[in-house]
Structures are given as structure tokens and as C-alpha cells.
Design goal:
- This protein has 2 domains: about 45-140, 2-Layer Sandwich (Alpha-Beta Plaits); about 160-500, Peptidase S8/S53 domain (Rossmann fold, 3-Layer(aba) Sandwich).
- It has an 8-stranded mixed β-sheet with strand order 10-9-11-8-13-15-17-18, with helices on both faces.
- A hairpin with a 5-residue loop joins strand 3 (about 95-100) and strand 4 (about 105-110).
- The two termini are about 20 Å apart.
- Helix 10 (about 440-460) runs parallel beside helix 12 (about 495-500) and helix 11 crosses helix 12.
- The longest helix is centred in the last third of the chain and has 18 residues, at about 440-460.
- It is about 25% helix and about 15% strand.
- It has helices spanning about 60, 65, 75-85, 115-125, 170-175, 220-225, 265-275, 305-315, 345-355, 440-460, 465-475, 495-500, and strands at about 20, 45-50, 95-100, 105-110, 130-135, 140, 145, 185-190, 215, 235, 290-295, 300, 330-335, 335-340, 360, 375, 380-385, 405-410, 420, 435-440.
- The protein is α/β, with parallel strands linked by helices.
């Protein structure tokens, strides 16, 4: 086996566990190294997504509003119907844009409670027979499981199961593949320029030196990006994480007030592809490339932005965004919320998978059946539960029939039972982009599986998303500890890569 050294630098104290669930259950608190401990509640919503049956196609209907010209007579008629429905809710809507799935995004003059927005959507669908579906533009979050401060000293998650019960069996996989030539898109809070991931970040198209990926957050306030007068969208080159903290007196998302910046996307990216450079940590696929796409900012991220980012990552055309020259082979979504799989998410995922891109999603951290967790419950995707250092299901991890496989995510059973990766410091803005830290959650389990998918594709580039999912399931090993609802078992990297190479 090729020797890969990965000494760990001095580690910052980190008491975080990251996952991807819409914070609905008030008894679930979130905690990280910056003191994120407030109970999370479902966030008020300002947008609705409406898909009409009589739209000829996405490309044919994007020009009138998407390019900034006047609203058409058809759009005026649709908006009038929406206004008549919204009147009883005390809201007034304006047209924002059409997204890649064909749905139209409408913005409310006042935020509505999620239950109100769902009721409004249902009433609109009942009153307008041209509506195929209407649903809230939900806000997604990276959520954290509570833990105590600790220092991690080793990457147990990367070890062989013979020496570490909960390990991913990576050494045997690295004999065959390091992920070279494969691109993994990370849809998250963006990236920080950590020296251990910089060698593997995909540069921003048409950007300048030192810029990477793309920012898909539309709202300048959520993105923390200043835009010129008259410009409404913050989208553009560079997915730099501007911090997702929320001030104590915030009025945009008061339910998130007091949250510190998580630097979640950088931690996830390091687990996937931290470079094999004899420094710090090593990623599951240390020669793969990471395409950072920023979809989570202050207050979270909207489904409409996430759907566009999914499609663009998969090489599909998105209005107003230059064509993607670095199509992703795999997409990692360490984010989510409770509820059903929305038609918007399902459509975006199906488009991406039909174009050959594998979707890997966190099962969520509520310790509930993952069928109640979105987008983990969407069809065709690879849904990942989290296991502990001993190989049992982590107490917080969601479970059930929607789960495909499990992977190391940390279980807090010991001080070492967390995942070490690249993690900047700073409660609001980053104060040091070179540090390492620990998190635990299904957010951390998911990039392990995305990384293994990259290793598989590097040895067999023709594998389809369905084949990758099938191989991961068929080669998974039985959990060595109690792991009910963990799908096929714990991903076995060596077995999966060997099976991919021989397929």
C-alpha cells in the first residue's frame, strides 16, 4: 500500500456537530465551538415556488423576468391570481425569477409563518388550475448536535475496521484510487482558503486568482455581499464563506439570533479532499477536486437557490449563470430540513442524476425516521446515517427505510468520537483560516460517502449514479455495534472501490 502520512497539527477546541436538518424540534439544541446553543425553531418564510403546467419549457419562459425586462401579460395574470389568494394572509407578492426546474419564485412583502405559507400554497393550487404545484421556498440550515470542548488527536474515521471498529477501510481503497480526475461539488456555506484544501479547490470561472467556485445565494443580505445600486442578486464568481453568524438583535431571522459562524463548508470539504501533503489532515479522496458552491449564508439557504446550484453543478444550464466548465461527478449536500421531499428538490435531483451526477445527502440529526427529513427522503439519492467510533448508530442520527448506508460521523461516546477536519476560527468573520477542529453529525458522515464515490469513479468513470448507489449498498459491511435503521450497513471503502474497478 502506498504510504500516506497525515500528521495532525495542533487542534483547536471544537464542540460542534454538524448536520442538515431544518430546526423544528425545540428540544434539539445546536452547539459549536463559538457557543451556538440556542434551541432552533422553524423559520418564517418570504418566498413561494410555483410551477405552472402550461409553461412550454424553462428556457422559453426565463427571458421576460430573468433578464429584467417587463412582466408579460401571462405573468401579470398569474400574479393577479396569487395576489387574490394572498390577500387573506396579509401578503403582497412580486415576481423574482424562474429557476432551473421551471418553477417561478415569488417574494412576499411580509414574512409568513411556515404553516401560513403552506396553506397559501395549497389554496393557490386549488384556485388556479394552471398550477402544477406550489410550495414554500423553504430555508435550510446546517444544524449542530451539542458536545463538550475537546481536542481530537487522530482520524479514526479513515482507519481499517480491523484496527478501528468504526473505520471506513480507506487504506485498502487508497491502493487503487485517490480520486484523481473527479470533481465533487460541495453545496454548503462556501469555503475558506485553508491551505490543506486550496490545492484541490476548483478555481472560479472568469474570476480572479484566489477565487473558487460560485456563489448561488441570491439575497445580498443572506450572502453578506454588497451589490451595486439597482442590482438585486448577489450571485457571482467566488464561493468564499462570509460567515453565517446572526446578530443577537437580528430582525431577518430572529429565531437564529445569537448563532456564531460555523465554517461548515470548509470542514465538509476537508473531509472529502484535504490534500495528501504531509500536513494536517487527509481527505477521503485526496486527489479529487472540490467545487465549492455557496448556498447557505446568514439565516440558512433557500430551496430555489439550492435547486439551481444542484443543476448547475451537474452541468445543466441555469439562467443568468455562465455554463459550468467543471461538471461535478458527485454532489455533497450536508444540509436539509424536516418535511416531505419537495417537488422542487426532487426535480433538481432527477435532472442532475439523469445527467450522470451522483447525489449524496445527510440523513439528519433529529433521531427520527429519515422519511421525515428533506431532502434526505427524496428518491434516487444516497442518504447517509452517522455512526460512532465503535461502529454503532450515533444517538442523534436519523434512521429508517430512506437510509441507504451509514458512515463515520462521530457519536460523542468518548472525547475522540468526533470528526477532525479543516476548520477556521472566528465567531463572526474568520480570524485564522489555517486551523483544524472537530465536528460530528450526519453532515460529517455524508462527505465520507461522497469521497468514496469519487474514489470509485476514478477507477471506473462510466459508473452511473444508480450503479454507484448499488455498489455502496452491496459492499457495505455489517455494523459492529448496534445500528438499527442504518440501511445496508457501514460503507466499506476498500470493498466499494474494488467492486467498482471490477464492474
Amino acid at each position: 500500500m502506498k504510504a500516506i502520512n497525515f500528521p495532525v497539527k495542533s487542534l483547536m477546541v471544537a464542540c460542534v456537530a454538524a448536520s442538515l436538518m431544518n430546526p423544528v424540534f425545540a428540544n434539539v439544541t445546536a452547539a459549536n465551538k463559538n457557543g451556538r446553543t440556542k434551541p432552533q425553531v422553524e423559520q418564517n418564510l418570504s418566498q413561494i415556488i410555483v410551477k405552472y403546467r402550461n409553461d412550454a419549457s424553462y428556457n422559453a419562459t426565463t427571458t421576460s423576468v430573468g433578464s429584467g425586462s417587463s412582466v408579460t401579460a401571462l405573468q401579470t395574470q398569474r400574479l393577479s391570481t396569487l395576489q387574490s389568494v394572498a390577500q387573506s394572509f396579509g401578503a403582497y407578492f412580486s415576481v423574482k425569477r424562474q429557476i432551473v426546474t421551471g418553477g417561478w419564485v415569488y417574494h412576499s412583502s411580509v414574512p409568513l409563518k411556515p404553516a401560513q405559507m403552506r396553506a397559501l400554497a395549497a389554496k393557490l393550487a386549488q384556485n388556479d388550475r394552471t398550477v402544477e404545484y406550489a410550495e414554500p421556498d423553504y430555508i435550510r440550515h446546517a444544524q449542530y448536535v451539542p458536545t463538550d470542548p475537546l481536542y481530537a488527536t487522530a482520524q479514526w474515521d479513515m482507519q481499517t475496521s480491523s484496527t478501528q471498529a468504526g473505520g471506513l477501510n480507506l487504506p485498502g481503497a487508497w491502493d487503487l484510487s485517490l480520486g484523481k480526475g473527479i470533481v465533487v461539488a460541495v453545496l454548503d456555506t462556501g469555503y475558506r482558503p485553508h491551505p490543506d484544501i486550496l490545492p484541490n479547490l476548483v478555481p472560479a470561472q472568469n474570476g480572479v486568482a484566489g477565487q473558487y467556485g460560485y456563489n448561488f445565494i441570491t439575497d445580498p443580505v443572506i450572502a453578506r455581499i454588497t451589490v451595486p445600486s439597482g442590482v438585486k442578486s448577489a450571485r457571482g464568481y467566488d464561493a468564499l464563506d462570509q460567515g453565517d453568524w446572526v446578530p443577537n438583535d437580528d430582525t431577518v431571522c430572529p429565531s437564529q439570533a445569537g448563532n456564531a459562524s460555523s465554517w461548515h463548508g470548509t470542514h465538509v470539504a476537508g473531509t472529502i479532499a484535504a490534500a495528501a501533503n504531509n500536513t494536517g489532515v487527509i481527505g477521503v479522496a485526496p486527489s479529487a477536486k472540490v467545487l465549492p458552491l455557496r448556498v447557505l449564508g446568514k439565516c440558512g439557504g433557500a430551496d430555489s437557490d439550492i435547486a439551481d446550484a444542484v443543476a448547475w453543478a451537474a452541468g445543466l444550464s441555469v439562467s443568468g449563470v455562465p455554463a459550468n466548465a467543471n461538471k461535478a461527478n458527485v454532489i455533497n449536500l450536508s444540509l436539509g430540513g424536516t418535511g416531505y421531499c419537495t417537488k422542487t428538490n426532487a426535480a433538481a435531483f432527477q435532472m442532475a442524476m439523469a445527467n450522470g451526477t451522483t447525489i449524496v445527502i445527510a440523513a439528519g440529526n433529529e433521531s427520527i425516521d429519515a422519511k421525515l427529513s428533506s431532502p434526505a427522503n427524496c428518491p434516487g439519492v444516497i442518504t447517509v446515517a452517522s455512526t460512532s467510533i465503535a461502529g454503532g448508530r450515533a444517538g442523534y442520527s436519523n434512521y429508517g427505510g430512506s437510509v441507504s448506508v451509514a458512515a463515520p460521523g462521530g457519536g460523542f461516546t468518548t472525547a475522540a468520537d468526533v470528526i477532525t477536519s479543516t476548520l477556521p476560527t472566528g465567531t463572526t468573520v474568520s480570524t485564522d483560516d489555517t486551523t483544524y477542529g472537530t465536528m460530528a453529525g450526519t453532515s460529517q458522515a455524508t462527505p465520507h460517502v461522497a469521497g468514496v464515490a469519487a474514489l470509485m469513479l476514478a477507477v471506473k468513470p462510466t459508473l452511473t449514479p444508480a450503479q454507484i448507489k448499488s455498489i455502496l449498498i452491496s459492499t457495505a459491511r455489517p455494523a459492529p455495534a448496534n445500528c438499527p435503521g442504518c440501511g445496508a450497513g457501514i460503507v466499506d471503502a476498500a470493498a466499494a472501490v474494488k467492486a467498482a474497478a471490477g464492474s
